Amino acid sequence: MSVIETIRQCHPKLIKIRRDIHAHPELAFAEHRTADLVARHLESLGIEAHRGVGRTGVVGVLRSGRSLRAVGLRADMDALPIQERNDFAHHSRHQGCMHACGHDGHTTMLLGAAEVLAAHPDFDGTVYFVFQPAEEGEGGADAMVDDGLFDRFPMESIFGMHNWPGQPAGQFAVHAGPVMASADRFDIEILGQGAHAAMPNLGTDSIVAGAALVQAIQSIVSRTLDPLDAAVVSVTQFHAGEAYNVIPDRAQLCGTVRAFSEAVQDQVEAALSRLCAGIAASHGVRVNIEYRRGYPPTINTATEAALCAEVAAALPGCSVLADARPSMGAEDFAFFLRHKPGCYVWIGNGPGEGGCTLHNPHYDFNDQIIPAGVNYWIELVRRLLPKA
Fold first, then answer.
1. Which residues are identified as catalytic?
2. N or C: which end of the chain has fewer CB within 10 A?
3. What's the Cα-to-Cα distance from 234 to each of 81, 238, 258, 328, 363, rounded to whole Å?
4. Mean pLDDT of all residues in the chain?
5. What residues form DSSP beta bridges with 204?
6. How confident is the model at residue 323, as a pLDDT?
C-alpha cells in the first residue's frame, strides 16, 4: 500500500482522534490525558515513547536503517482558557477551556505522520516526535530544553507547523528568517500623592502622569527605532482609583512589546526606562518599571526554510505562499531554534467562518487539512534522512 493510500485510510481515524482531543482540552502543563493518549498511540505503533519530558511532554523515537542522523518534528498539545461557543458534537467538555488555536490538529497530524512512517519506514536515521506542552504563554519548549531534550534526543534540526486560518486550505507559508515576533511584558507603577478631586493642587496626580506616559510610549516605534525595524509597543491595561472624588496616589500600566530581533527589544526596553524617568521628573511622581523578556523571536534558518518550501511545493494539491509576511504573534518554538537549526511553517486552515481566527471562541481546526499536514511531515523526513 502506498503512503498516500495509507494516509487516506488513516484519515477517518485521525479525525476521530482530533475531535476527541478537542472535546477534552487541557491547559499548560496539565495535558495529562492528552499526553497519555499520545504515548499510548505511539506505543501501539511500536514506537518508543518517553513521557514527562518538560513535565508533561512526550517524545516518540522511531529508528530505521543504520544512519546516526536524526531530526525532530514538533507539535504542541495545550489548549486555551477560553469558553467555547461552538455547539457541534465535539465541543469542549471543560468549562472555560478550549482548543482555540488548533493544537489538537497539530498533535493529530504528527500522530498521523508517526503512524504512516512506522508502516513505511522509508528513511535512514532517527525521527523524534516531540509533543510539547504549554505553548500558550508558559514556555513549554524551554521546559523541554531544560529537561535535556537535545541531550537525551540528539537531533540535528527541528521543525514545527501551525495552522493558519484565512490562508487557503493546504497552502504552506514558509519564511526564511523571522516568522513570529518576541513577546515581552512590562508593568509600570506610578506613585504620586493622593488628594481630594476638588483640590488637586494638594496632591500629585498619578493618573495625569500615567496618561502622559501612555502618550509618550506611542513615540517609541515612530521616533526611536529605525523605520525599517518592525515593532509593536502596546499599553493594554491602565488601573487607577476607586472613587469619583479621590485622586489616587497610585496608577499601574501594563503592556506588551513585540519585535523580530533582540537588538530592537533592547532599544525598546531602554526607551521605556528613559520615558519613565522623564515622566517622573516632569510630573513630580515616582515611576517604577519591571520589564520581563518572554518568548524570543522565532527565526527560521535559511537552509532549512528553503528545504521546507521545496517539500511543501512538491506535495500533491498543495502550494507555497511566496513572500509571506511574518506575524507579530509569538511562538515558543523560538526556544528550540535558539539551540538547533530548523523551520516553523504555517499550513492554511481555510477561510474561518465569519472571519473566525485563532484564539476565537468559535474556532475549530479544519479536519480536511490533516492529510496535507501528515504528508508534509513524511516527505520532510524522507528529504532529511534519505536512504542511501
1. 78, 135
2. C
3. 22, 11, 9, 12, 25
4. 97
5. 193
6. 81
